[in-house]
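CsbD family protein, Bradyrhizobium frederickii. Tokens?
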Amino acid sequence: MVMDWNRIEGNWKQFKGSAKEKWGKLTDDDLSLIEGRREQLEGRLQERYGKAKDQVRQDVDDWLKSLH
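Tokens:
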């Protein structure tokens, strides 16, 4: 079952570590500012990794699928 984004947003503190593991270029400040909002996460990933929006969206989808 794919986790739904509302659960990530509501429990961001639990998922920050996993996000930091996957995307090591995200700073603690980035993770605090994101606060579980997907648009914020995607925007920060674009800034840090210089990837296209579509690629970042796919990366986030893949990360979401990997969470249990």
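The chain has a mean pLDDT of 94.
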